[in-house]
Known about the structure:
Layout lengths: L1 H18 L19 H8 L4 H11 L15 H13 L5 H10 L1 H6 L10 H10 L2 H20 L7 E8 L12 E7 L5 E7 L5 H11 L6 E4 L6 H9 L3 E6 L4 H11 L6 E10 L2 E11 L15 E11 L5 E10 L10 H18 L11 H24 L3 H4 L3 H8 L3 H8 L3
Parallel strand pairs: 1-4, 4-5
Antiparallel strand pairs: 1-2, 2-3, 5-9, 6-7, 7-8, 8-9
Amino acid sequence: xxxxxxxxxxxxxxxxxxxxxxxxxxxxxxxxxxxxxxxxxxxxxxxxxxxxxxxxxxxxxxxxxxxxxxxxxxxxxxxxxxxxxxxxxxxxxxxxxxxxxxxxxxxxxxxxxxxxxxxxxxxxxxxxxxxxxxxxxxxxxxxxxxxxxxxxxxxxxxxxxxxxxxxxxxxxxxxxxxxxxxxxxxxxxxxxxxxxxxxxxxxxxxxxxxxxxxxxxxxxxxxxxxxxxxxxxxxxxxxxxxxxxxxxxxxxxxxxxxxxxxxxxxxxxxxxxxxxxxxxxxxxxxxxxxxxxxxxxxxxxxxxxxxxxxxxxxxxxxxxxxxxxxxxxxxxxxxxxxxxxxxxxxxxxxxxxxxxxxxxxxxxxxxxxxxxxxxxxxxxxxxxxxxxxxxxxxxxxxxxxxxxxxxxxxxxxxxxxxxxxxxxxxxxx
Length: 429
């Protein structure tokens, strides 16, 4: 009885003190420079240079559009960006799902120095998406991507391939009734989106591609693109910056396209090779490549800054389930020499950016995200490309062959099961 009375007296004395202490999520800070009580935990992680550290550096580098010198700012901008990255990697789509993700994993988030004042509200997320300068955020993503790109690519001993293509943001409709288009430069070798440029409609890719090329270093690299990029301005810029190109040739350049088609019948290819038959995706495909020297085929070489190589691609495909047979023929032009071995392989490598766009839609459900403002859609697109790149970075840092062979869908299924698994991936070096 004596021990019990002592215990009750102790509780009674300390209950007054406990009642005067506010819960952590009710403590307000008056600026982003407020003391961080979990800095020690964060510093322990920062010494290793993990993927998580790089993501935190990116999030912290995004300029805060809010008036940090006045008002009551409860959440650091970097914390909210990290919450969105974690939630999108865990397949959360709507804002309500992101908030619920944060509440469910709040203790783990605080353990790495985030959200010490609790989870932001849905209106706060909306203001952040629409308030962040989309150009500055895209620039910070570019810095993050190119730094990781250099680390992963050094020592590979191969020529780098930069794939350029646009993707429509189908969840957003502009005042002109069209979906905004994001043109991106994607590294085939590392699986990282290096830079992006936004344009109001598909046709504006012609103006966006030169801007994109100005953002990245293409010296000694091969730029691949679809037929819309077959423009004199783009060709001249690639040549001037010391890069090579491989671009599809279609009827948007009628004189060049039909002139090449007319002359190919009377010219012998420099070499021909066949790939396949190969079974994949329910199809048996055989690919034939014929490589021609443009000196004998292209009439107006001066217009395009010099000679070009012609690649004729034929695909013979048999659907395994039905036996239906289809044929496809495409033409490509390249600044690479005609005697370049397996030149047609660059054609297939360009399709990797299409696979990345497909992954954004299927694995990250990008087209399901509805945003009224193009600015908010662009900011979310940046976050999603970072998420996609993070898994490619993880695979690039792994030494085990089995890890490198894992697909994005497999990795996302694994990490989306729990936040603990996601953190385990991101803390690896």
